[in-house]
Amino acid sequence: MSDVFKALADDTRRILLDQLFDQNGQTLRQLTQTLSMSRQAVSKHLKILEAANLITIHWQGREKLHFINPVPIAEIVHRWVGRFEEARLDMLVDLKTESETKEEKRNAL
Questions:
Q1: Domain boundaries along the sequence of the chain
Q2: Backbone phi, then psi, for 37, in 5-degree steps?
Q3: CATH architecture of the domain formed by 2-69
Q4: Per-residue pLDDT tens for 21-42?
Q5: To the nearest whole percent, how much of the chain has pLDDT over 70?
Q6: Is beta strand 63-68 parallel, antiparallel or unpaired with respect to 55-60?
């Protein structure tokens, strides 16, 4: 998982992931068009994303297509964000229970 965090720490790699999220299955040429850097630099960033399993490669003839792999990001969401979400949901359940208990007491009087 540390490879995923390291890969996501770079702005350019996050931009590449955003591009693939918007339009999956792009070539290096397509991904390079919106960035002001060389194809070699973009290629290095893509290799880091691939090593972190954040993208997958599929060859279509001579074209190398890049696809986003959402699984590692989903694992982060479940492990880190999910914990906070769970606590918030627990608070809402407690609030609902407390509110219903108070209403039952008022109706009993």
A1: 2-69, 71-109
A2: -150, 165
A3: Orthogonal Bundle (1.10)
A4: 999 999 999 999 989 999 999 9
A5: 100
A6: antiparallel
